[in-house]
């Protein structure tokens, strides 16, 4: 008998895959959260640089000091779909909110701000595989293979929904006045510039703080991969010691260590088909030549 394809386990709500330990009620309420003027959302498809951006934003609000041990970024800048609307509505203003929702479902207010971070789908897939494997209680996929996860991702049958739908939906709004569109790769190439762009986007109350070069230096230092690799209980719930850590590798191009030639060709074909004539391929100019 052929073994059925192993897949991560999810709860399904209106077609969304939700990690098993998440509450459907909170997820449903998140969709009805009333965004407020002054709210700032950090929006990503899963594994595209959310936590890194959350920490930068948190430090901009805390004199460039790093998140101390004992606190968790997911409570400081809460994940809307996980904690639900009431938790977020009760935060003091201005609210900073994490979400993985696609554009059309993200609570909108013209005076709210949206920082969107995109990451190339190849590295996103690899990072998402380790995430799904490592959070054993969330997905029951500890024994899942890269090949099995690849099939789920390419079909969009993962809890982020379809990667390309998410990116296309937000990319259309990249020039909106209340959207800051960044890529993980830009953040890696020039983190200093990304921190300044985020502060400028949040407004003079933030950008003025960076005039003190000391604070910019502190944020740069504490947002580095090396620093964020320390005391990882600050970023997520714990995962079994034998699994990869949440802040795992932090590299551009790790996909080259994982994809077979066939997988490269299949995801490249999908990437080209889904992003044709959008300009999205220009976000990662080195990617397609390296894949061919
Ligand atoms: S989540 O679960 O969706 O919130 O994950 P997310 O934070 O979006 O993405 C996790 C990946 O981001 C990497 N990361 C970093 N890279 C570089 N520098 C810093 N400071 C940093 N912090 C987090 C993290 O390692 C995950 O990527 P991979 O490729 O798995 O290492």
Q: For the terminal residues, how far apart are their CA atoms?
A: 37 Å
Q: What structural category do the secondary elements indicate?
A: alpha/beta
Shape: globular
Strand elements, count:
6
The value of Rg in angstroms is 19 Å
Strand order of the largest sheet: 4-3-5-6
Pattern of helices and strands: EEHEHHHHEEHHHHEHHHHHHH
Bound molecules: 3'-phosphate-adenosine-5'-phosphate sulfate
Chain-wise SSE layout:
Layout: E1 10-13, E2 16-19, H1 24-31, E3 40-44, H2 50-60, H3 73-76, H4 80-83, H5 85-89, E4 96-99, E5 113-118, H6 121-134, H7 136-139, H8 146-154, H9 163-171, E6 179-183, H10 184-189, H11 191-202, H12 204-207, H13 213-222, H14 225-228, H15 261-275, H16 287-291
Helix pairs in contact: 6-8, 11-13
The structure holds 3'-phosphate-adenosine-5'-phosphate sulfate (PPS).
3'-phosphate-adenosine-5'-phosphate sulfate binds next to α2, α6 and α14.
Describe the protein in words:
The chain has 292 residues and is α/β, with parallel strands linked by helices. It has one domain: Rossmann fold (3-Layer(aba) Sandwich), CATH 3.40.50. It has 16 helices and six strands. The strands form two sheets. It has a four-stranded parallel sheet, with helices on both faces. It has a two-stranded antiparallel sheet with strand order 1-2. It starts with 9 loop residues before the first strand and ends with a helix. 3'-phosphate-adenosine-5'-phosphate sulfate is lined by residues 44, 46-52, 123, 127, 130-131, 223-225, 228, 247-250, 254. Residues 44, 46-52, 123, 127, 130-131, 223-225, 228, 247-250, 254 line the site of 3'-phosphate-adenosine-5'-phosphate sulfate.
